[in-house]
Amino acid sequence: MSDDLPIQGLCPPRFERVREAFTDHFAQGLEGGARFCFAIEGEIVVDLWGGHADRARTRPFDQRTLTPVFSTTKAVTALVLARAVDQGLIDYDQPAAELWPEFAQGGKGQLSVAQVLSHQSGLSGFAEPIDPNLWFDWQGLCAALAAMTPLWPPGAASGYHPITFGYLAGELFRRADGRTVGQALAEDLTGPLGLDMFLGLPAGEDARVAEMHRPSALPNLGEMTPPRRAAFGVRWGSPPAQDMRRWRAMEIPSANLHATAESLARLMAILACDGRLDGRAFLTPSTIAEAGRERIAGDDLVLPYRMSWGAGFMRNATLGIYGPGEASFGHSGWGGSCAFADPARRISAAYVMTRQSADLLGDPRSQRLIAAAYNSL
Is there a domain that residue 296 lies in? Predict the structure, then answer.
């Protein structure tokens, strides 16, 4: 860690073990820039940041740095969907095709909203080639997903949908609410709460975005089965990244949220604190319970793990990566970011970073920080 960029932020003596772990990661060269936030009852009690926001090491990683969090986006999208359920616009148990009639094609007519959100629809990616630019055409991409025949019997198993999840969840939300997930996030949550996150980043915020260090190795997915190949192993499997402004501006509710760790930890506190934050009610406890309860568990067909899925959330029951409690749930993102809620202890937390690892889930850096925080309680 460069001595001209010391670790900064909030860390009471009680949580000194968190500061020690965070500082050690920089000393070992494991971080470029990073931030970790830990909240109790919605109040941030640990907020540490350090390092550089750019690869040239000219820009400090600070409180205003926005970090791409990739699939941690899915936790935020799932929360927005849960609010639509709370408002009676969506029912987790209704067929998705009731909201989106075209989705019934290919034998998907009986899939429930909750099954779609828990990666059971068999649409982990496109097995046959598509124009990669189709990812930037919301209506065209959603039409292709609606017409697609599932890669496995729908509802028979989960198979992680790394990018397609956002279009499926986002289109169900749009059909029910009339707005996009990004619009609802800004109007209903981040605006009123003053949270620093964007799904669809305005060009004026580009200067605050951290530059990512790609992982030095590919993740180990195991045998490249058809569902895995469609999700991760084809050149048309994700939006082309050559035009970074186009990528940032597009709303992809599975993959391209830009946020601070503080805003993520505070937003997840809604799920940890009976739906309330800053004296306002955003969700009912019963809807939170429905959002976080197990929808399917078992060996995932895409991720090489035994997964327990809620309605868009990774559940801690089989992973043990979001603290010690089985009731915790959240999501992790490519390279190491994560955000989660622990309703049993009314805790929420988030970790963001620029140096990406090859660990698919449970990055050792976040694991060490989360463990240190819980051990300090």
Answer: yes
Does residue 2 sit within a domain? no
d(CA 334, CA 162): 10
In a domain, 3, yes or no: no
Number of domains in the chain: 1
**pLDDT digits over 237-291, tens only?**
999 988 899 999 999 999 999 999 999 999 999 999 999 999 999 999 999 999 9
pLDDT digits (tens, 9 = 90+) for 54-104: 999 999 999 999 999 999 999 999 999 999 999 999 999 999 999 999 999
| CATH number for 24 | 3.40.710.10
Domain containing residue 251? 8-375
Q: What is the pLDDT of residues 254-268, one digit of tens each?
A: 999 999 999 999 999
DSSP secondary structure code for residue 8 in this structure: E
Spatial contact of 247 and 241, defined as CB atoms under 8 Å apart: yes
Answer whether residue 1 is part of any domain.
no
- Cβ–Cβ under 8 Å, residues 30 and 365: yes
Rg (CA), the chain: 19
**pTM of this structure:** 0.97
- Rounded Cα gap, residues 85 and 377, in angstroms: 34
Token couple for 141: 């991409």
Instruction: Please write down the HEC assignment for all residues of 212-226.
Output: CECCCCCCCCCCCCH
With 0-12 / 13-18 / 19 or more C-beta atoms within 10 angstroms meaning exposed / middle / buried, residue 211 is: middle
